[in-house]
Amino acid sequence: MPQNFDLHTHSNASDGSYSPGDLVKLAAESGVTTLALTDHDTVSGVVEAVVAGKKFGVTVIPGVEISIDFAPGAMHICGYYLDIDNPELQAGLNFVQVARRNRNPRIIEKLKVLGLNITLDEVKAAAGPDQLGRPHFAKVLVQKGYANDTQEAFNKYLAKGAPAYMDKQRLPLAQAVAMIKAAGGVAVLAHPVQLRLETMADYLTKFKELKAAGVEGIEAFNSYQSEAENQQLYRITKELDMLITAGSDFHGEIKPKVKLGQFGENVPLRIEDIIEAIQATRKNLKLYELKEY
Q1: Using CB atoms within 10 A as the burial measure, which of 161, 202, 226, 248 is most buried?
Q2: Superfamily in which the 5-93+169-289 domain is placed by CATH
Q3: Helix, strand, coil shares of the chain as percentages rounded to 5?
Q4: Does the pTM of the predicted model rise above 0.70?
């Protein structure tokens, strides 16, 4: 069932297909009145999204999604209500972005080994002013006939486990949490099932560890999980008295089945209650909101 909020979305400032402004416009058209922009390891799209929010009547929460060094699965931490100009946040994100730029030539080399003739200049042209990432490699692969669409390009060449995949730089959990809190934000674990733990007891244990490490919330509802998993993770999070959030992880055409505001059939959350809980956790949320763009 569609909701009137979505706290996990991506623009083409990272690996989404919509500009921040067009993403907010789509949110308004989709009945989403509160949207968090949580691009991967960058806050460069936040200002455009906030400005568009004022135009289209959508409340935009400044956020980010940070990749964490973790096994066996993937751990991502979302930060919400950030002062995007905070020096500690900017320094940490810049470190990751430099590492990301350094991996791009290595992806090109892997594609060449596979017999795919594309250049880094072509990928940069496809990215334009956006942060260059795998969606732009996929776009060029489609343009040159090596894949029928973006999803096929990812499946055949660019996704984790595919022959041209290159792992990216990840931060330690402690550093990511410190960056988010230095910027006045709250830290929330995104899409828990991507941790790839074996049992719900394992998730309970991990959530306790994350809470002790300063993570304040869990994205209990998201598009990666079954309805049963959503409800189980919701109960665990509630039991631990952690913030409970929800988001689709919308990317646009990169993940065409994922829709804004859709992350479960039975979501017992109201955005007003989520924001109130966040405000009770952090006392300096007005830090960002006082800025005018």
Answers
A1: 248
A2: Metal-dependent hydrolases (3.20.20.140)
A3: 45, 15, 40
A4: yes
